[in-house]
Amino acid sequence: MRKPTTQSHLLGDDAMMQYVEHIVTNMKDEKDLFPAPVPSLSVVEAALATFRHSATEAAYRDIRAVKIRKEKRKQLVYLLRELSKYVDTVAKKDVTVILAAGFVPSKDPESYAGYIPKATRLVAKPQEVGSSRIKLKVDRWQGARMYQFEFRKKGTETAWSIQLSSKSTCLLKSLDRFEEYEFRVTYIGIDPTPNYSDTVSSYVV
Known about the structure:
Elements: E1 4-5, H1 13-29, H2 41-58, H3 63-91, H4 95-100, E2 104-105, E3 123-126, E4 134-137, E5 146-153, E6 161-165, E7 169-172, E8 180-188, E9 200-203
Antiparallel strand pairs: 1-2, 3-4, 4-7, 5-6, 5-8, 8-9
């Protein structure tokens, strides 16, 4: 089941602007296929222009300008997501129509049916002092149905504790303060066989 994608998690600011421009141009050229886009292309173009201006202002690393750029990107991605829904309705899963609109189609789910890849770049970040919390983050994988985070005190041979998450981040709570824990994660895909990340360690504060 193929759908148009925003690519927002993959593209930097410049590439995102080019992607949106490509979509607007394609949909203008294919008015017969897309007679009444929602939101309108003029609205998307206005958001793109605003985002481009904010990105230019943020190039000087002014904190306020960077914050505005992030907000304007979110607004543009939101409009792009809404536009993708319109294209999805028109396309009815037809990849040629999705491509005609300039969108990148999602991958065929069957392409994720094989052995899952090794989870990469797991990071463990202690939260505020006294919180007894650790935030875990790993690279996203589009084929993941769930993310299985595991943890235990370092230096022990006890069974790993498991926390499942639908996202590539996870907040572990009520850990023992001043203790060092080790962490690992695996994607859960069509094939349930785990393929763990490298183990990382962190102290709880």
